[in-house]
Amino acid sequence: MSDVTPAKHSRPAHHWQRSVGELAALVHTWWSRRHGHAPPADDTGARPLSQEQQAGPSESSVQAPESLPGESTLWRMRTTVKDEPGSLAALCTALAGQRVDILSLQTHPLAEGTVDEFLLRAPGGLMASELTRVVSGAGGVDTWIERADAHDLVDAPTRVLGLAARTALDAAELPLALRQLLGRCTIRQLPGTPVGGGRGPDGVPVEGVLEDTVLRLRAPEGGVITVERPYLPFTPAEFARARALVELDARLGPRVPHSQDVLTLPEGNEITVRRADPRDLEAAKEMHERCSARTLGMRYHGPVGDAARYLNHLLSPRFGRTLAVQTTSGRLVGLGHLLWDGDETEVALLVEDKWQRRGIGAELLERLVAMAVEAGCESVYAVTQASNTGMVAAMRGLGLPLDYQIEEGTLVITARLDGDAPLGEGAVRVTNAEAP
Prior knowledge:
The protein is of the alpha+beta class.
């Protein structure tokens, strides 16, 4: 932990078939009533790192881990059966013959056949390969299976409403909600006008596009949201759910939690850490003007004059979460970004020169990493320069396994969040150069 210590907490007491408009109104009313109560714990990353991790990538039945005898194992399974009477009954009978308990079942009708999605409790001695063989013998094809956990016991409508509620509270939750809704997938959002100008991505129709393993949806503020899941085609039902969640997000408009923490620096100064959004654009530009060319160059790795052009993107909750540090006078002196980069997550820090070496960067980084853990990220990476000893020290201070990749002065440090090494015992792997 850094030597910045909390002084006080200034947290303000803050039929799925129905139309999206009704759902939006319902969630907005719930959100408005909740405003004024304590926000979610990850608003500013103030809580310790969670031990809860998102399940690993979905794999085929051949690659799925096998179970140990004597244990009861939860599985998520999808298979396609013929759309004819008795096909589902035959499949259920085959599973019952192996003492497999069907805990839940969802059906996804297709033009030809039906995709059945099961949550199963199977004897521990029943291997994934054997379970797949039984399903195949009962008429199931294109079977996909992976290990499940207790979180999968929540029924689909409850899970969807929970994701809608999280999205209602925080616009930055949309990509995370889509990932939890659709399983392990890669989500990218391209703005309507790219940073630095140029032509944006080709638009998509209002209703979106379903292309086998790819969904393309119109982003609420312009641009395109692309969701890709190469291991499993999307069904029309999943497409409709994703489209409804994006439309709900658009109807609710911009929103960022307003929680904040007041901390005391070693020399006694108090600072406030809070979530930032596009309303902080002018204050962020003013901070840029007070930063030295060296500080801006360490952060943006390009012409210093172009630094401010990235702020609209960085402060948008559509692309991640940003923490701001401000003084008691309200001046912005630090920014920390957690940026969704497809299936990867980047962390980036900028602290005004006069406020460096006071533990602010380390404090921001720890909070951003806590947010990444809560969001189910497996790792975070930082792009900096080999001479940026402050960023290197902050990453090392996390006590997590680190991977350094160095090329022509550019340093990429990746911290694994999968819990392989306990805090304080971080392992280091270096590629192409010695560790700084």
